[in-house]
Amino acid sequence: MQPISVYRQERLEQRRPPRKQLAAAASTFVAVVLLLLLLPGEQAEAKRTAIPLPLDITPAEVDRFSPAAEEVIAPVNHWQETKVRSGESLSIIFQRHGLSAADVHELLTGTELTRPLTRLRPGQELAFHIEHGKLLGLKVKKSEMTTLLYERAPDGFQVSELNREPEIRTRVTSATISSSLYKAAEDADMPERLIMELANIFGGVMDFVYDVRAGDHFIVLYEELYLDGERYKAGKILAAEYVNRGRSYQAYRYTNTLGKTGYYALNGESMQKAFLRAPLEFSRISSQFNPNRLHPVFKTVRPHRGIDYAAPRGTPVYAAGDGRIIEAGYTRANGNYVVIQHGSQYITKYLHLDRKAVRKGERVDQRQIIGWVGSTGYATGPHLHYEFLLNGVHRNPRTILDKLPKAKKITATEMSQYRKAVHGMHLQLSTYAVQAGYRSPSNASVDAG
C-alpha cells in the first residue's frame, strides 16, 4: 500500500494538463486581447461619426474639419509700445530700444514728414516694429483719433495716417440760470468749449453780458464722441433753446444746398446777424450809453457815446462784424484802439486795449480776435470801451441792432427740406422741455425767431 502523500501526488499529476496545451492556450489569449484593443468599439465608432462632413466637401477642404484646424493661433504682435519721457529726443528713445544714431538718420532722411518726429512731447505714445535689430516701422500717436505710421519701403519710409472712428451719441442737457450762463452751464456738466459755442450761436440775438437774467434757462442737444466705450470729448451742438425773460430763442444746425453750415431759427432765419450783440463774452457791463455821464477820471460831465465792458485784462475782444480795419493805433486818451469800417454805413470802435491783434488795412471776419482787454489811456481799470456809429452818428449799441435789416433766411425753395431736416431735433427739444417742466404740453411747439 502506497503512502497517502504519494497517492495525492499521482492524483494531481492526472488532473494537470500537458505543458504544450498550456502554452497554446496562453498564446491564444494574448492574441484575442490584442485584437480587442486594436479594433474600435461601438462607442469609438460613434465618436468618429458624430460630426458629419458636408455633402459637397472637396478633398482639398478635408483639412478644415480635422481636430488641428480647431486650434486658434494667436497673431504675433511685433510692436513694442513706449512713451516719451521728459527730456527725451528721438535719438535717446531709439537708443533705449537698441537702435543707433544711424537708424535715426535713416528715418529722418527717408521721409518728408519729419516734424512730428522732432517735436515729441512727454507722455506721447510711440510703437516700434524691430526685427533682427532693423527698424521696420514706427507709430507716432498724434491724438486719440490719429496715429502716424512710418513703414520701411525700398526707397525710404512711407507715411500714412491711421484714423479711428468714434462712436457718436447724442445728449440733452439743460440748466436754469441763477447767477451767470457760464456757471449754470458748468454745473450742468457742459464742457467749456460748448459753453462758448452756445454763446456764439445766440450772440446775434442776445447780449450775454447784459441780457441774462436769473430764471432764464437753456436746453442743449449735442453730440458726444466715445472711444472704447468711454467718453472722449464733446462734439457739435445740434440744436439749442434759450429762454430769456420768457422769450424763446431756438437754433438748429443745418447745412444748406451750397454746403454751408450754420444755425437757423425754426422759421429759417439765420442766427448769425450782421453784428454781435457784444464784442466779448461773459463779463459784466460797467457803464451804459449815456450822453450826460460823469467821467470817472476827470469828474466832469462828458458824453459817453458807447458801452464799457469790465473784464479781466487779456480777455479777447472780437470784431462785431465783417469789415476792414481803418485805424489801429495809440492815443493818450484812448490808449490802444481799433476802428472797423463795416460797409458804407457802419463803424465800430474798440478802446483801451491792452494789445492789438490787427493792423490798418486788414480785412477781418465777425468774431475774429482784434485785441485784448486792457486799461491803456484814460481808464480806471481793465475794460473795453465799445462804440457804434451809423452814418457817422454815435448810436446806442444796445438798441441800434434791433433797427438793422433782418438776417438772411433759408430760401423759399429750400424751406421744405430745412423743416424736414430739423423736425427731429425740434421734437427732441420740445419733448425735453415738457419733461423738465420748462413748458406745458399744450405749448410744446413754440416757434422761435
TrEMBL record:
Residues annotated as domain M23ase beta-sheet core: 303-397
Pfam families named in the record: Csd3_N2, LysM_OapA, Peptidase_M23
Cellular component terms per the entry's GO annotation: cell envelope
Subcellular location(s) per record: Cell envelope
Biological process, per Gene Ontology: proteolysis
Domain Csd3-like second N-terminal stretches: 169-291
Cofactor(s) required for function per UniProt: Zn(2+)
CDD domains tied to this protein: M23_peptidase (cd12797)
Main location (coarse class): other
Keyword field: Hydrolase, Membrane, Metal-binding, Metalloprotease, Protease, Transmembrane, Transmembrane helix, Zinc
Transmembrane segments: 21-39
Record-linked InterPro entries: Cell_wall_metabolism_enzyme, Csd3_N2, Dup_hybrid_motif, LysM_Opacity-associatedA, M23ase_b-sheet_dom
GO molecular function: metal ion binding; metalloendopeptidase activity; peptidoglycan binding
Domain (Opacity-associated protein A LysM-like): residue spans on this chain: 79-156
Entry superkingdom: Bacteria
Protein name: Murein DD-endopeptidase MepM/ murein hydrolase activator NlpD
